[in-house]
Amino acid sequence: MKDRITYFDKNYNLRRFVYCTPFTLDGRAHGDLHEQFKRKTILTTSHAFPYIKTRINIIHKEEIISTPIEVAIEDMQKKTQELAFATHQDPADAKMLQMVLQGSVGTTVNQGPLEVAQVFLSEIPIDPKLYRHHNKLRLCFKDFTKRCEDALRKNKSLIGPDQKEYQRELERNYHRLKEALQPLINRKIPQLYKPVLQVNSHRDSFSRLSLRKLDI
């Protein structure tokens, strides 16, 4: 079992700091989903915080650019983690759970999960370099829908009689979302599986050839 990260661990002996900057290729900070990039900047200081001085020199700077589909993957992973946390929170917090659920399955959410899926999963990408990102996002959505289902079940156990209609509305929205996502997240990219089959085929052929040589 992993050791629990304490408040002390999170706030002491810190030398690496990260901040993210959204941008688009035409210079705007924010754009549509298909054009939204993100720059992740990682700074390393010469000494660890806390320190006797409030300012410490930066000795290394690293930048990582995330493409729009990578940004979408991170966003879906974050939504899924929020659902998991709200579902398993102890003691349970019904208001928090409902807020996260509404943001996940609500029909009026702009640039919500369904729009993300429609933008990035409607078609198999032309560039083979994006195949694995496409597949990773597809798997993220599978995990996301499972977490939504768990959260709805948890919320049902927490609400009183006055919120039964609200629960039914959440469930209706979830089923509409799941139905719309189904054809998008069930589409696999055949090219991702061909190399594995070919390697196994060559390996089997090599093994049979080796056995024949040994028999001789």
How would you portray this structure in words?
This protein has 216 residues and is an alpha+beta fold. The chain folds into two domains: 60 residues, no CATH class; 129 residues, Up-down Bundle (Methane Monooxygenase Hydroxylase, Chain G, domain 1). The chain has seven helices and three strands. A three-stranded antiparallel beta sheet has the order 1-2-3. Helix 4 runs antiparallel to helix 5 and helix 5 runs antiparallel to helix 6. The radius of gyration is 23 Å and the shape is globular. The N and C termini lie far apart (53 Å). The relative contact order is 0.09. The C terminus is likely disordered.
Going by CATH, the architecture of the largest domain would be: Up-down Bundle
- Into how many domains do the coordinates divide? 2
Tell me the overall shape. globular
Helicity, as a percent range? 55-70%
Strand content: 5-15%
Major β-sheet profile: 3 strands, antiparallel
The CATH topology of the largest domain corresponds to Methane Monooxygenase Hydroxylase, Chain G, domain 1
Mean residue pLDDT: 86
Number of DSSP-assigned strands: 3
- Radius of gyration equals 23 Å
Structural class: alpha+beta
Q: Gap between N and C termini, in Å?
A: 53 Å
The CATH superfamily name of the largest domain is: DOCK DHR2 domain, lobe C
Strand arrangement across the biggest beta sheet: 1-2-3
How many H/I helical runs?
Answer: 7
The topology string of helices and strands comes to HEEEHHHHHH
Which regions are unreliable across 5 or more consecutive residues at pLDDT < 50? 209-216
**CATH class wording of the largest domain:** Mainly Alpha
